[in-house]
Specification:
The chain has 146 residues and is α+β, with helices and mostly antiparallel strands. It is 23% helix and 21% strand. The chain has a four-stranded mixed β-sheet with strand order 2-1-7-6. Strand 1 and strand 2 form a beta hairpin.
Length: 146
């Protein structure tokens, strides 16, 4: 059995232990859960495209070979019809996701800004459909309020 003094000494040693400095990497380090997932995607004219539902990362085939000096790199943002999977559980098949290549992302800020127009992406069809078939039928939904 351990005594209170031994427990305190163990906690003190763990607190005083120095953490290793993180490795230097080229580029920007993002916390995927905080900085990317569930963010709205906008094109350069602030037209909504979709939301970030998942990420495609480059990693070694075997995750046991993932090294601290080589963190995963975001290859693409994935979006798709995930509402029902969030309600009932499960995951969409990979074929149902729409890929937005990371190279077209201009700024991953509060919203993920793209450097290409929304019309050039397949991911914006749901936003366009909602605008044309649902929002346009609401009185006053066809005109810009400005």
């Amino acid at each position: 059995m351990t005594t209170r003094k031994q427990k305190r000494a163990g906690r003190r040693a763990a607190r005083d232990r120095k953490l290793a400095t993180p490795p230097k990497v080229a580029g920007r380090i993002l916390d995927a859960g905080l900085d990317l997932l569930d963010r709205q995607i906008l094109d350069p004219r602030a037209v909504p495209v979709s939301t970030v539902d998942d990420l495609e990362l480059t990693t070694p085939d075997d995750l046991a070979h993932l090294q601290a000096g080589e963190p995963p790199v975001v290859e693409a943002l994935l979006t798709g019809p995930v509402l029902m999977t969030r309600v009932f559980g499960g995951r969409l098949p990979d074929s149902r996701f729409i890929r937005i290549p990371w190279k077209v992302v201009a700024d991953p800020g509060i919203v993920v800004s793209l450097g290409v127009a929304a019309d050039s992406l397949d991911a914006s069809w749901t936003e366009r459909w909602m605008r044309d078939h649902v929002i346009a039928r609401i009185p006053g939904g066809r005109h810009d309020p400005e």
